Structures are given as C-alpha cells and as structure tokens.
Amino acid sequence: MTDATPAPDPRGTVVLLLASSTGGVGQHVRSVARGLVEAGQPVLVCGPAATDEQFAFAATGARFTPVEISANPTPADARAVTALRRALAGADARVVHAHGLRAGLVAALARPTAPLVVTWHNAVLAGGLRGRLSRLAERVVARSARVALGASTDLVDRAAALGAADARLAPVAAPALPAARRRRAAVRAEFGVAGDQPLVLSVGRLHPQKRYDVLVDAAARWRTRRPPPVVVVAGSGPAYLALAARISAARAPVTLLGHRTDVADLLAGADLAVVTSDWEARQLFAQEALRAGVPLVATAVGGLPELVGDGALLVPPGDVDAVDTAVRSLLDDPGLRADLACRGVARAAGWPTEADTVATLRALYTELDTDPAGAPGHRDGAGRAGPATSGTDGPATGRA
Questions:
Q1: Residue 383 resides in a domain
Q2: What is the number of structural domains in the chain?
Q3: What's the CA gap between 121 and 102, in Å, rounded?
Q4: pTM value surpassing 0.70
Q5: What is the residue range of 67's domain?
Q6: Per-block average pLDDT, block size 10, for the chain (400 residues)?
C-alpha cells in the first residue's frame, strides 16, 4: 500500500444494491462505488449479473455479488431476498444503501441489521394493478428505510408523505462525460447533416415515460422547414418498435440510433437537445447537454425545473404544439440559442459534482455510525422537520 492509498475503513462495508439498470441508476451506483473505494471505504455492490456486465462494478475496486432483481415484480423476488441475506451474512455491513424502489423493497424484506438507506430515483407513473402494487411497495420502503434520499424535491415529499422517518434531498450528479473523440463535422457527416442543417438530439431509454412520441409528432411538422432539421434519438428500450412505426407513418425526420456510447460526440455535433419526458428527477442527459453548452428544450416535470432553472427552455409535458414552438423559436434565432447555451453552462457550474455526492453520502454513513436508530425530529436537507417516532399507524424506522 502506497502513502497515497487510504487505509480501508475499519467500520465495515457499504453495501450498494440495485435492480436491473441500463442507464442512470447504474451509472450513479458505479460513480458512488468508485468514489467510496478511492476514499478507502470497502464496498460490496449487489445486483443483477447483466447490470454488472454493463457497468463493471468490480473495475471500481468494489466487490460484486449477483442478486437478481428485475425491473418489475416477479415471483423471483423471494430468491432475491434470500440471495441478499446470504450476501449480507458475510459482508460485515456498515450500511445497506439501496437504489430505486425495486432494490429498496428487496432490501426491506431482507431486514438487514445494518441501517437501511434508500435513494428514490423515480416516481411511480404506472396505473392499474402494477401501479397499485408499486405504490404499496413505496409505502413499505418508505417506512422501512432509516433514511430516504430523494433525487428531487418531489421524491423527498413523496417519501415523507408515505411515512419515511427521515427524508432528505440528495441530488444525483451526472458522471462527467469524456472529451469528444470526433470533430463536429465528422459527427454530422455520419447522419448526413448538411452544413446549414440543424441537428436535434435526444438521449434516453426508449420507454413510454420518455414520450418520444411527442418529439416524433413535432418533428413531422419540421419536414417543411428549409433546411429541415435532422433529429436523432440515442437509446434502446421496449418502445423501439412502436416508435419506429410512428416515425414511418408520420414521415418524421427522426432516426433511432439505438444504444450509443459516444454521447459526448453526439453533443459536439448537435445544435439543440430535447427532453420530452412525462417525469424526470435529475435526468442525466439534461445535465450533459447543459454542461456541453447545447441549448435544451425540456418538459417542466419532476425535478427538471429545479435542475435547469433558467438554463433551458421549459414546456408542458405531452404538448406537441409547445415542443414545436420552442424548437422553432430556437432554430430561428441563433442569438437566443447562444444566450440559452451560456445560461445553461452557468447553471451547470453550480451543480454538485460526483465528488460532492460521494462526500454527502460518506457524511450520512458516519452519522448513522453514531446514530443508527435515528433521532426524533430530524430536519431534512430542505430544513423541514421529519416525523419523529412511529406508532402502529405512523412512520416506522425499523432508488432505480
């Protein structure tokens, strides 16, 4: 061990748990694992083997144990609870930190002896039976966690309303993108973008929540513009076939790129970024666009308004006319685009970094070392008083 390598923390292992992920939650857990390990904190990551294949958690210096938690509830959840209990039995856990509702539920059912922290990354938007089951899971997770962390204020409020004894805001920082490897002209040439044509970019999982149907319908109106913009969407997911059919039927100038690992390059070639989601907390692509100085049009949902402030042009969700108008206004006014890009960069400069995020979590884990059972009347990160203690009907102290 060199002088520059921190001694391993003697207080035990931080266990990071996540469900199946192909995007933001997996990136966040990898970032946290790397930062904790670099600070000398032993880390065990538990999650699906396929998620580990994508994010290579062991490459951060953490250990990895497979615990198969799917994105949706299945009978296999009982096996996941058993697998987590087995992993914890030999982990000397200092704290169990679950990311997302699915991981939080498995952790709650496993009943770890170490304090349970759950980061709420997403809101429940589903209806029907699945929505009812998810809302029941929310209540179980909220009342089981020693601390509930929300990636946005609305998630903090949701956890508190469901009975969380201690709910706090804990913004999720987007991992820094690498420098672009290709020049702007090379990126644009890949998509056949002429010199005076605008390139409009969106990045995210192809899922109904992202409402790419709104972007497609707006883009169909842009065929008559001269020159017409080229619209590209990077990402994969279950909505691919439906979106491809919609693009074809509408003759929209939209190309679905599939999964890409060169988002920095895509941003270097883009003139405009668009987010059309029904809900987001601190969407990674929105953060990446503002940091890169690409003007952003985004929906005013979830945590996006508090994230971007005046650094993006906000529109109502599900409103094709609003997206169309906002994009046209920016494409027609280079000065407005430049001003919005400058404001976006300035806004991004004030965001917490990955290092800030890790430091906040390390401070929380230290707090739990000295107060593992919780203190009545704790005030959350927004200064609001948290619930005190639990009775039969009150909040119990007992992400994704």
A1: no
A2: 2
A3: 11
A4: yes
A5: 13-173+354-370
A6: 63 96 89 97 97 96 96 87 96 96 96 97 86 89 97 96 95 89 97 95 94 98 95 95 97 96 97 97 94 98 96 98 98 97 97 95 95 51 35 30
